[in-house]
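Supplementary Text 2. Reproducibility record for the structural model of the 125-residue chain.

All settings were left at their defaults, and a single model was retained for analysis rather than an ensemble. We include the record here because the model underlies the residue-level annotations in Supplementary Table 4.
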Amino acid sequence: MAFSEGISRLQRIINLISIDYRSKKEIMAYLREYNIIISYKTLERDLKQIKEELGFDLEYKRNVGYRCENENVLQTTLISIDSSTCKVGFENELYIIINVFTHNGKTYCNCMDKRSKKVILVVIT
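Retained model, structure tokens:
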């Protein structure tokens, strides 16, 4: 596996579990939407890496699943972004888009606020 594929997989997991609690089954189904097929053991290693190496506060609730928070991730924010400019790497004076993904029919993107250097989860409407 290429290094970038592992990073992409971790980003997708973080994106999903930063929205709400997700079970391992839901996480793996979400990854399959992107043709990422992994075992439960690999997912457990990924979750451990997200917590221990990347420093995310990974919360687990029995019968609910996993959710992560990090001091660099702010509350979900609704801002106006033209869908034609919603591409990784797009930037303006306020933010730079670092990731774009779709879940349950909604498009989201992670943007880095240039002033605060914090990551914002944006819902594209």
